[in-house]
Amino acid sequence: MxxxxxxxxxxxxQIHIPSFYLHPPKAKCNTRMRLYVVPSKMFRCxxxxxxxxxxxxxxxxxxxxxxxxxxxxxSKRLGDDFEMMLEELFSEIKSMxxxxxxxxxxxxxxxxxxxxxEQMVAGRKSIEEAAILDVIALGYMAIEDFKMVDIIxxxxxxxxxxLSDDEPLLDSILTHMGSMNSALGRFENSMLxxxxxxxxxxxxxxxxxxxLVMPLLGMGKALVSAGRAIKAIDIYHRTISILESxxxxxxxxxxxxxxxxxxLLIEEGKVKDAENTFMRIIAIHTNLYxxxxxxxxxxxCSLANAKCAKGDAEGAIDLYTNxxxxxxxxxxxxxxxxxxxxxxxxxxxxxxxxxxAKEGRKLLEECLSITKKYKGEEDPSYxxxxxxxxTSYSRSKNYVESERLLRSTLNIMKKTVDPDDPSTTFxxxxxxxxxYNLKQDKEAEQLAVKVLHIREKAFGNSSLPVGEALxxxxxxxxxxxxxxxxxLEMLKRNLRIQEREFGDESEQVVETLKKIVFYMEKMEIxxxxxxxxxxxxxxxxxxxxxxxx
Length: 549
Fold this sequence. Notes:
This protein is mainly α. It contains 23 helices and two strands. The chain is 69% helix and 1% strand. It is globular and about 80 Å long. Mean pLDDT is 85; it is low at 1-76. InterPro entries: TPR-like_helical_dom_sf, TPR_rpt. This is MalT-like TPR region domain-containing protein. One of its GO terms (biological process) is chloroplast organization.
């Protein structure tokens, strides 16, 4: 599911609340009710080997990346001192970032980058330079300087292309490169790097070695991102099989590939298989930590997603409710824990779906109260919960309360972000819809136009968020009697956006085609109407045939 889901208008006279969420769950029931989930801001280390660390040596700023090879004798060829330098460098960079010393980390990375660059200009392009660049790239990735990561990836490609597969540490460097390429959206490159790493590891350790697990997991993730789900499922099954044969069927290491597999099975519509996968995770955690452990609770939330995907909303609610109770009584979780917060929001959403809005709002109010107490009203998560609560009241047609909450949201955001920050457009567009429902069309139109302009600047004229703003503005302007020709042009523009984002035969495209034909008939431009009318008729006939089957 996309982060931006434009509402589908059932007819030209009806307008719906925009549906947004920040971190969508893996699977949800078929509903237009969507709530925000506060994103967690976590330190991201893309190293895929537990032993990879980085550090700084003595008083000089030196760089050196290290990834411990499963065969320790290989890394001896590079020397333990070199390996220690790498570990120290990464540890230093990681420590700087975690303490908020981003500028110091950048200075350290830049100094080491320039040192390696000079060595490469002088003709040194060995495994040592590759290992150092590997650590530098991981550092830049952690501070989200993707431009530098891109530059370093090109340098690394130049080096590793000419290295033989028996070089020490090469398999780990290739695995890291695969991870970083995947993060940059270069999924085909990522898969090629993982494939070479796997070839090296299989040659050195066999096809059933647990050293294959990390590159296999990376390969699976890249395949999913590239849309090759069937192959990814095979990869996850192989990973699970390797771990089972090496560590046993109840090993905690199985949880990561099982979780990835379960989520993918949901996306592929294999819900029963997904349920079995998550039930196995629950069994593993229960066996290792006891039935009341918070890890069991989190696995229950994943199982709830699977039940929701097959339409068992009540079963999902029961699981979420029990999981929430377990987390709240856990000694490992504070009341404001991000996982607890996410669980409350997802349960609230489900309760709204089955018509238990009052119970759902109680959870949202609890989120709001906890966030206010522990983080303050200007924390981004407080804004999220205010918006969620406003959404809830809008769904219950209590537009007055929704308006109050949304205006409070925007007033707080005025103090924390720039007026043209795209984050303001989420509550702003929702306020426009709320005012529309309160028959306050003039202000609703002004807000919708402002949202459109901010999003055009932030996301591009043909982006999905712009399409959503257009759809809202069209409905408002129709009711206030704006020029039919201008509305028709906006509809055509929105159609082009929907065709690119959802496909030429999507439900969104059909709905917009209906509106275009309606306006062309109203304006009596029959010569232009024919191709749109014909396309709409063909799509309707196709959908009828699909329903018959």
